[in-house]
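Handout, section B. The chain below has 238 residues.
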Amino acid sequence: MTDSAEQVLLTTAHAWGLQLDAIQLAQFADYAAELVRWNAQTNLTAITEREAIYVRHFLDSLALATQFDSAAPTLVDLGSGAGFPGIPLKLLYPNVELLLVESVGKKTAFLQHIVNHLGLSGVRIHTGRAESLGHDPHERERHSLVTARAVADLRVLAEYGLPLLRLGGLLLAPKGSDAANEAAAAAPALAKLGGRLRTIAPVALPGLPERTLVVIEKLAPTDPRYPRSVGMPARRPL
């Protein structure tokens, strides 16, 4: 029998055309419990109430699945923190090949724990910066999806993410209600990096102000100069 948090997850996901079975629900429950347990010693999230975890972490992550085809994509989750949105998307679509990128070692320790705890395969964890990863020949321009949930200007997220995408790949960036203005300001940077705004989709999360999802498509190879050195995209956005 599902509790109220699980029911909100099921109902909202179903409204988005996403289906979750009993095994997936059990994995989400384990994920929430381990997040709270680890958070007592390691600062992973300020959101610790069960239903809030399900809405503000799980559903906020699953909303990204409304914008891509689940057919065996490779997904890079930049600034993954405690695994959002990458791990919920992996639970939804187990065939996704997932790379979690996080610069803080205490957080990647949790990521490794939760991947093992949930028995997930096809997941890699990288402790390091997106600026460096973007110049790795094994990762650059090889992925179909990049997510960046971190609170950063779209120009910065684009410089982190577009170098990792293959042509036709998508950068998915959750944003607030001012996404249209931010996207308009980022248009020159997107063009410089080989991308273009595809859409800004509304995201309705139960009980929360309206959010949006900015979707950027990779149309051309990214100039080898980008991303710039560590810290430079944030200090001097394009």
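Note. The CA atoms of residues 141 and 165 lie 4 Å apart. Compare this with the example in section A.
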